[in-house]
Amino acid sequence: MQSLGLKVGILDADIYGPSLPAMIPPDAIEKVYASESGGIIPLQYEGAPLMSAGFLRPGDFAAVRGPMASAMVQQMLTTTEWGDLDVLLIDMPPGTGDIHLTVAQQAKVDAAIVVTTPQVLSLVDVEKGIRMFDQAALANSIAVKIPTVAIVENMSFFVCNSCGAQHEVFQRGAGEKLAQDFGIQRVFRFPLDSALSRPGLPYVLATSESGSMDEFRRLASGAIAAVEELRTCFQPGLRLEVNGALLILKTSENQEMAIPAREVLLECRSAKMRDEFTGKRLFREEDIPQNVVATKVSTAGRYAVNIDWSNSHKSLFSYDLLAQVAEASGQVWHAATASE
């Protein structure tokens, strides 16, 4: 992002396992100090202000409970003298705990980029994080609603040093499927490469040209573009409404398609309904009630919806998939009827 002309700061919000101190040369690490106004003067490295609990207590471990960890993150976030920044990157710990809520409540977070690996267990945790940030959950009466704009899949593959062939370490498609489920438009894949996690010097400063560097550039420019879209109030132009046994897909241009609710449920891509990688059905069509209807529809991110069904099932559909289901069932767009 700096190479694109932006002023960038980094906050390492992982109190229990801060990694930022390990990513820069030891001789560049200095103690952080309190300013005359009572704030924290961050460490400066390569023109970027950096803050981490690892700078406050070098080499020490943090045996603190959740509320104390949240308070430490709040202090670093709100009292660090960041200066004039275009972007503040916040590296969050894994999971969906107190620290995530604290950051969401204390800062106006524009967007989230989630990092995962292709393993199923990792994807389960990442999906929970996306849902937590998006569902406007209430914590201390403060709404949390942060759109996820990109998925980064780490350790996606490795490149053979001998032949240069690319090999998938795990079954490919996990990150893409997660993006499809939530309607996330941007997916970035990085290889299993020891150089990416080598301590002492950030990879983007140590390397000028490589496949991974190209992907880092795509990630930076893609993140900037996504935030700009949000700031200009970009909307997908689609919404879903319930009308008895029908689901009505509407556009901002006053067009609509009516889809039988049961046909939508039959195309659900949840783990209970489909094999996550092959897409093969895990149910018998005759087991889905003929009179099943949607009981609730709520947005999930900018490009998808959650659907609750009368048979207690829950689905996640991107607007693109809903449009595909409608068109496959012979539905066509027509002028929307006037609402009463």
From TrEMBL:
Please name the Gene3D superfamilies in this protein's record.
Answer: 3.30.2020.30, P-loop containing nucleotide triphosphate hydrolases
For this protein, the record's InterPro entries field holds:
GBBH-like_N, GBBH-like_N_sf, Mrp-like_CS, Mrp/NBP35_ATP-bd, NUBPL-like, P-loop_NTPase, YlxH/NBP35
Q: What CDD domains does UniProt report for this protein, alphabetically?
A: Mrp_NBP35
Question: Which superkingdom is the protein from?
Answer: Eukaryota
Per its record, how is this protein called by name? HCF101 protein
- Domain Gamma-butyrobetaine hydroxylase-like N-terminal as annotated: residue spans: 240-322
Name of the coding gene: HCF101
Q: Which GO terms describe its biological process?
A: iron-sulfur cluster assembly
Supply the PROSITE patterns for this chain.
Answer: MRP
GO terms, molecular function: 4 iron, 4 sulfur cluster binding; ATP binding; ATP-dependent FeS chaperone activity; metal ion binding
Q: Name one Pfam family in it.
A: GBBH-like_N
What's in the keyword line of the UniProt record? ATP-binding, Iron, Iron-sulfur, Metal-binding, Nucleotide-binding
Is rRNA-binding found in the keyword set? Answer: no
Similarity field? Belongs to the Mrp/NBP35 ATP-binding proteins family.
